[in-house]
Amino acid sequence: MKILVVEDEAAIAAGLRFNFEQEGYEVVIAVTGEEGLHAFAAADPPFDLVILDLMLPQMSGYEVCRRIRKQDSQVPIIVLSARTLAEDKAVAFDCGADQYVTKPFALLELLSRVRNLVQRRRRGRGAPKVYRFGNVVVDPERFTVTVGEQTTRLTTLEMQLLNYFLENRGKVLSRQQILEDVWKEPADITTRSIDNFVLRLRRLIEPDPGEPRYIVSIRGTGYQFMADVTEQTARSTERLSSDTADSTS
Ligand code: CA
Predict the structure, then answer these.
(1) Under 8 Å CB-to-CB from 23, ≥6 apart: which residues?
(2) 3: CA distance to ligand 1 center in Å?
(3) pLDDT digits (tens, 9 = 90+) for 181-194
(4) How much distance in Å is there from the Cα of 8 to the middle of ligand 1?
């Protein structure tokens, strides 16, 4: 497991390196956004997770986040920031961050967040399954949504939320419940953020995002995912050839 830490404060960077190395992670530190982007692009194998300070010299952490997201829609990004305003968090999430941790932070908490994100990502890879409804195909393992001919890659959280809707289709889900089940850290994020994520998903999958028929708003409560969904194992589609080859060898 390989982590990129983009942090200009040497003491914090050194502390993170020490603790993550103790946990068995390989750590690369970058002290500017530019350096972080270079390290990210050059990494082979790629990084499993990015920890990104927002207040960096020259290029801001927001911009670094946006650019990393453009290259890789899946890598978990944890933003570190001394700013606690809800709007700063919202901007960070809009830039593609998965989690927002305010400084000063508790190291144990950060370590467990990292562990969680890495595990969730591995679990997401575990059971290949593809969902189909209307002209939409969702592949949670590849973090892709295909509508007609158009395939889009989702961020980790977008995929987790869509997957959650799919697994709980037909149920009325309160915002609070969604926070607890998908974000797992309800104290840290406002229900408003869920609405922003839902807006983005609707723009992707709804034939008419203004009149959603899949992710339906339930007034005063939350959302209900309504679709006639077919589940297929990815095995029965694209994976067929390689899996067959494996099992017969
Ligand atoms: Ca800083």
Answers:
(1) 111, 115
(2) 18
(3) 888 765 667 778 88
(4) 5
Domain segments of the chain as ranges: 2-124, 129-248
Residue-wise pLDDT tens digits, 214-225: 999 999 899 999
Quick check: 121 and 111 in contact, CB under 8 A?
A: no
129-248 belongs to CATH 3.30.40.10? no
CA 31 to ligand 1 centroid distance, Å? 9
Task: Give the Å distance between the CA of 47 and the centre of ligand 1.
Answer: 21
Give dist(CA 56, CA 58) in Å, integer. 6
Task: Please name which of 64, 65, 25, 19 lies closest in space to residue 47, comparing C-alpha atoms.
Answer: 25
CATH number 3.20.20.30 is the correct assignment for the domain at 2-124 = no
Residue reference for tokens 């993170």: 16
Answering whether pTM is above 0.70, one says: no
How far does the centroid of ligand 1 lie from the alpha carbon of residue 56, in Å?
Answer: 5
CA 64 to centroid of ligand 1, rounded, Å? 13
Q: What is the CA radius of gyration of the chain?
A: 19
Spacing, Cα 153 to ligand 1 middle (Å): 30
Residue 221 CA, ligand 1 centroid: distance in Å: 39
